[in-house]
Design brief:
Strand order of the largest sheet: 8-9-10-11-12-14-13
Bound molecules: coenzyme A
Radius of gyration: 23 Å
CATH architecture of the largest domain: 3-Layer(aba) Sandwich
Number of strands: 14
Largest sheet: 7 strands, mixed
Number of domains: 3
Order of helices and strands: HEHEHEEEEHEHHEHHEEEHEHEE
CATH class of the largest domain: Alpha Beta
Oligomer: single chain
Distance between the termini: 35 Å
CATH superfamily of the largest domain: Gcn5-related N-acetyltransferase (GNAT)
Length: 329
């Protein structure tokens, strides 16, 4: 599904329960995958599983998506080969985790450069979209590289209850350069229309006249819009930036950092990352306008190397001048 997962999930679960003729109160455990996966998909599934677990007062057992794949690879493994689950993360990187022949984890899930992925010495059973990228002669590639809900449910039966609900597993690219990312405190993800309400909430903490979710969703639906959302340690949204591409230039439409997250370098990091990413898409210049009285934003842009190119008198509704600024990417 492109969108609408949140609306579809509960009725689907209800239909499956009805088909199996099992009442909800007969459930003893819930299994759910924790990622890596898409931000929205993970949050919807985890929120639903956790909510159901809370209502039924039963444990919710989380499995990484890699572990879920390994369970599938272990099902037909007559030679009892060690297993490596690997998802292609593009740009020469992969999410990877290694397991024994019975899908017991031997390492933690990690995002690695392909050259950093360590394969066991002997023949290995590989599963996932990255398998063909690293397979050697003698390795096996498991067919059907997708998690299987039935296998997860069986594995959850015997898994010890961790005593706390599962959290989404977001893995960061290992090449993320800015300090906040390096310190593992922040991750920057692509903003999609499903994030519109999160962005609107952040926008309302930063501007007296807030953009509503519908307006932001429309912007994000436009293929020329580039949006990035910054998530803090508990995946709490901390800030976002929106830009619009026009030929080989891009205009910063807005940037906002939650008041509690300011002056920690997040605004600069988002600008730097966006500029870097747009640069690799052939964008050579960023431009923007900022209210003359917005001293913090102007200080941010000055610090980020923007130079003033002009002024529009009484441009904003409150009569403030707009300062026009630009920088190369
Ligand atoms: C403008 C904004 C995005 C800055 O985000 P931020 O994460 O706090 O910025 P950073 O921590 O990266 O700041 C980088 C530099 O900008 C300058 N700066 C940022 N905020 C400043 C402030 N309030 N006063 C003075 N300088 C400031 C400083 O030079 C700072 O470096 P330093 O902290 O090492 O001194 C944030 O204040 C915000 O969301 N404001 C409301 C929304 C807004 O006005 N957006 C811009 C619309 S054009």
């Amino acid at each position: 599904m492109a969108k609408g997962h949140a609306e579809a999930l509960a009725p689907m679960v209800e239909a499956v329960m009805a088909e199996a003729n099992v009442p909800f109160h007969a459930l003893t455990r819930i299994a759910v995958t924790t990622g890596p996966g898409t931000f929205t998909g993970l949050r919807i599934a985890l929120a639903f599983a956790r909510g159901l677990g809370l209502a039924l007062q039963i444990p919710v057992i989380g499995f990484s998506s890699l572990e879920a794949m390994a369970l599938r690879a272990a099902r037909q493994n007559p030679q009892r080969l060690p297993i490596l689950a690997i998802i292609d993360a593009r740009r020469g990187q992969a999410y990877a985790q290694s397991f024994d022949a019975a899908a017991n984890a031997k390492s933690s899930p990690a995002i690695l450069l392909l050259s950093e992925v360590t394969l066991p010495n002997g023949p290995t059973r590989l599963i996932g979209s990255g398998a063909h990228l690293i397979a050697r002669a003698g390795d096996e590639i498991a067919p059907e590289p997708f998690p299987d809900a039935g296998l997860l449910a069986r594995a959850a039966e015997t898994r010890p209850d961790p005593g706390h609900p599962p959290h989404p597993l977001y893995l960061r690219p290992s090449d993320a350069k800015p300090q906040l990312l390096l310190k593992g405190q922040m991750q920057l993800i692509r903003a999609v229309p499903e994030h519109a309400s999160v962005l609107a909430a952040l926008h309302s903490t930063a501007f007296p006249t807030a953009w509503d979710g519908e307006f932001i969703a429309n912007l994000l639906q436009n293929p020329a819009t580039e949006g990035r959302l910054a998530l803090g340690p508990d995946d709490m949204p901390q800030g976002f930036i929106l830009a619009s591409r026009i030929l080989d230039e891009a205009e910063i439409l807005t940037i906002a950092v939650h008041p509690k997250a300011r002056r920690k370098g997040l605004g600069s990091m988002m600008l730097a990352r966006l500029c870097e990413e747009l640069g690799s898409l052939g964008i050579s210049r960023l431009f923007l306008d900022v209210a003359e009285s917005n001293t913090s934003a102007r200080a941010l842009y000055d610090a980020a190397g923007f130079a003033q190119t002009g002024r529009r008198r009484a441009y904003y509704a409150d009569g403030d001048d707009a300062i026009l600024m630009t920088r190369a990417c």
